[in-house]
Amino acid sequence: MKSPILGEFHPPSGKPHMLGSIQRIETPMHRFSEAEEVDYVIVGVGAGGGVLLQRLARAGFRVIGFDAGPFWDTERDWVSDEKGAHNLYWNDMRITAGEHPLAFGANNSGKGVGGGTVHWASFTPRLHPSDFSIHSTDGVGVDWPIPYSDLKPYYELMELELPVSGPSYYPWGDPHGYPYGAHPMGGVGDALIRGCTNLGIGVSAGGPVAILSGSRANRPHCIYRGFCIQGCKVGAKASTLITHVPDAIENGAEIRPNCMVSRIHVGATRRVTGVSYFDSDGRACFQKAKAVIVAGYSIETPRLLLNSACPGFENGLANSSGCVGRYLMAQAGNVVLGRFEELVRMYKAPPAHALTEEFYETDPKRGFARGFAIQTVGPLPMSFAKQMMVAKGAWGWGLRSVMMDYNHWAAFGFLGEILPNADNRVQLAEEKDRLGIPIAKITFNLYDNDKKLIEFGKNKTMEVMWAAGAQEVVQEARYAHLVGAARMGDNPETSVVDQFGRTHDIANLFICDGSIMPTQGSANPGLTIMALAARAADYLIAEGEEIFKPRTRNIRKPPMRRDLSPPDTWGHGMPRI
Amino acid sequence: MNSQTERVDTRPVNTRTGKPIGPISQPGYYPGFSTLAQQKFWDAKTREVVLDRVINVPEIRFFSQQEARLLEAICDRILPQDDRDESHKIPIVPQIDRRLYENSHDGYRYEDMPPDREAFQLGLRAVEEIAQHEYRLGFLEIGPREQDRILQSLHDGKPSAAHEIWKRMAVHRFWMLLVSDCADAYYSHPWAWDEIGFGGPAYPRAYMRLERGEAEPWESEEKRYQWKAPDSSVSGVFEPVAGQAEHLGSPGQGGTH
User: Fold this and answer.
1) Which residues on adjacent β-strands are paired with residue A502?
2) Which of A76, A187, B62, B240 pairs with A127 at a CA distance of 20 to 30 A?
């Protein structure tokens, strides 16, 4: 057996908390007492919660970030192994129902500090300007309470903070460039580029992805090992765990991991007073806070609001509109698989490395509203086997035989916009979890526009795969991502929060995650969630103590704070913004 | 009707030579390729997790002996390993048993399905009932082709018996649960990675040859041979699950994008 020249690989000696292969947490973490009334409790330290926690801590607020899962040490806890990554996902039971039920777990939800950004493939496209007014222009869905221009500076800032690698000119939506250089292609990217080019379709090679193409500070560049969605041990792929949480701790924030918040409490003045939670030993605890920000994503956020029902808020908190849990969205995410005569070896390179948004906007000729993107994906053997089970009906010797051809297959992900519908929703089930908290039941159906869009997009994606030179093309219907279920809007009768994530009903209760998005476009939601969080943070910081006083509720755009970014954001890369 | 006493060759056949394949230590087109031989290049945690999977095969704790034997026979058809020698068969039932014993799952359950533990127990009963209905014998007593036909009927969503059980859970969902669990156990094992030429863990060493399907210096080139499923099997062909309705809600949804 051959050995590495310098010996076997061992984790660093001593027991530092590692976040990626180089970065370690040196700062002891502040611990607030439960009796102490902190300024903010954030429930869920994922894409939204992580960014917000870091901003609020830097601005000097006393803030605690609760997470139901662990505070990962990436060297000790994570593996380069598909099955071994199972604990990164939200594996508590949920009931899924409807004619076209969603899958959860690995598909769309994280548990632990960093949340879903720990296992996202990290495609980070922006929404297009058209996404913010689809009701006005296409007569479907709903308009956002803000235009693209309000979010644009925050997109630019997040693209620097993560940072995002991609082409220096990205042609779709609001054309822009990326601060870090595009990644080299893997076999799947080659196929997408070949297919698109043969059909005259524009394609973006090497990004946008939140994966370092060059080293930066205490993070090395990508090593193309392909285990992005099993957690990046390298530290090249951005997650709020490694990009924002260390700076939050450095600035006095507390992370309270393995703590499941079960209820938000409301006091006599119809303001929230703190949260009940179960700590890592299952002990019931209470933390006082001047304000609470829920950042648990599209299932856990409505679940917590509904489970917090109390006298005066019988239908759940912030639910006078009846919209909590409603307008849940997933993106259509069919996987199209093509077999090639030549070898592909799709396990190498990040699954996310090339895409096209050529079909993103509404085209009246197609007979449906809105559109879709086509992206590279790189299923590892376990996922691929199950895709073959569905897409080809493989089992037995058939499964063994098609799996022996694993290295000949490439996979594209179709990413299509499903429109919001009030009946696609999160409710509470009768069943309870191990802590006695009612679990979520999710009902999901596809409607006419969705079905037409999926049919067209699936066929177009298959056409690209054929054009790439595949000998055989099959597909599996599935979904990707979640957003909605606590949407933002100007009208308190049809939305849950305002444009800054403040609930219409309770002045010191906020929501800051994907659940506030009124529509989803065909862009992966992570970057948008982070941009919304940075914007919400600027608002909270600008309002300062006003947030904690009764009766004040301003809707005024805050000045943008470029001085609150984590260290090493500036002076790196070559931004073209 | 076949019975256990009749000798049926269950090995796949090399179509060039016409000879059965195996039993051998490593089927597939990458002879000699070994991911485990690279373990010193893996990080310590990954090495620990993967080696544990290979070395420590869990005991049966959830299923009864009888259930375990029946499930073993089913898994032998869903992921047949007749081309592998005894010491290189990949354990499947122990992995399923461990998952159910620990009540580990993927974080959701379809409304029309019972919890996984119950689903497996019901499913095993149903398979046995179908065998009795079709052949008046237990599933363990019929031949491989007959066993395959019963499994094929689940795959097709058209089981001939146990209708009481199928009222309590959808056939295609049980089928996908069963095949998924088998696939998870088989394709999470490094011997299966060697069989299909998957490079396996690559941290901290990295991959450097990304394009054109090129092998790393430590990977193997593909050496293809043509083969087919044995005549004793019906699973060598591809047909859509249950006629492939759109959005069956597949358990394969995990982990792509």
Assistant:
1) A510
2) A187
Average pLDDT over residues B144-167: 96
- In sequence order, the 6+-apart residues with CB closer than 8 A to the CB of B210 are A184, A185, A186, A187, A224, A348, A349
Nearest CB partner across the interface for A377, out of B203, B211, B256: B256
Contact (CB, 8 A) for A52 and A64:
no
DSSP annotation of B242: G
Predicted pLDDT of residue A10: 60
Min Cα distance B15 → chain A (Å) is 13
Closest-CA distance of chain B to residue A287, Å = 28
Burial class of B99 by CB neighbour count within 10 A (0 to 12, 13 to 18, 19+): buried
d(CA B119, CA B99) in angstroms, rounded, equals 13
A6–B contact, CB cutoff 8 A: no
- Quote the CA–CA distance of A356 and A343 in Å, as a whole number: 23
Q: Contact, A49 vs A293, CB < 8 A?
A: yes
| CA count, 13 A, side-chain hemisphere, A171 | 10
Name residue A375's beta-bridge partners.
A355, A413
Q: Is A571 a domain residue? A: no
Cis peptide before B23 (omega within 30 of 0): yes
Taking CB atoms within 8 Å and a gap of at least 24, the contacts of B59-68 are B59/B94, B60/B93, B60/B94, B60/B97, B61/B97, B61/B98, B61/B101, B62/B97, B62/B98, B62/B100, B62/B101, B62/B117, B63/B93, B63/B97, B63/B100, B63/B120, B67/B121, B67/B124, B68/B93, B68/B97
CA distance A288 to chain B (A): 31
- Would the CB atoms of A89 and B193 count as touching at under 8 Å? no
Query: In this structure, what are the phi and psi dihedrals at residue A456, rounded to the nearest 5 degrees?
Result: -65, -45
Residue A5 belongs to some domain of the structure: no
DSSP A368: B
The edge-to-edge listing of strands for the beta sheet with A438-443 is A425-432, A438-443, A95-97, B109-110
Question: For strand B109-110 and strand A95-97, is the pairing parallel, antiparallel, or unpaired?
Answer: parallel
Question: What does the domain layout of chain B look like in residue ranges?
Answer: 34-197
| ipTM here | 0.95
Q: Which residue of chain A comes nearest to B199, CA vs CA? A: A347
Contact A107 B253 (CB under 8 A): yes
Neighbouring CB atoms inside 10 A of B44's CB total: 14
Residues of B in contact with A83 (CB under 8 A): 53, 184, 188
Rounded to 10 degrees, what is the CA torsion of A508, A511, A516, A522? 150
Contact by Cβ (8 Å): A273, A265 = yes
Would an 8 Å CB–CB cutoff place A430 in contact with chain B?
A: no
Structural domain contains residue A381: yes
Instruction: Inform me whether the C-beta atom of residue A105 falls under 8 Å from chain B C-beta atoms.
Output: yes
Q: What are phi and psi of A458, to 5 degrees?
A: -60, -45
Contact A406, B200 (CB under 8 A): no
Q: How many CB atoms lie within 10 A of CB B61?
A: 12
pLDDT at A28: 84
Query: What confidence score (pLDDT) does residue B3 get?
Result: 47
Return the residue matching tokens 């996902």: A89
Q: Establish if A4 belongs to a structural domain.
A: no
CA angle, residues A268, A501, A125, in degrees to nearest 5: 160
Q: Print the domain residue range for A178.
A: 33-564
Q: Scanning every residue of chain A, which has its alpha carbon at the shortest distance from the alpha carbon of B157?
A: A393
* Residue A3: how many other CB atoms lie within 10 Å: 9
Contact check, Cβ <8 Å, B201/A79: yes
Q: How many domains does chain A have?
A: 1
Using a 10 angstrom Cβ sphere, with 0-12 exposed, 13-18 middle and 19 or more buried, the burial of residue A493 is exposed
Q: How many CA atoms lie within 13 A of A199 on its CB side?
A: 20
CB-based contact B187 A344, cutoff 8 Å: no
Confidence of residue B252 (pLDDT cuts 50, 70, 90): very low
The parts of chain A modelled with pLDDT lower than 70 are 1-2, 5-6, 8-14, 571-577
Residue B39 has pLDDT above 60, yes or no: yes
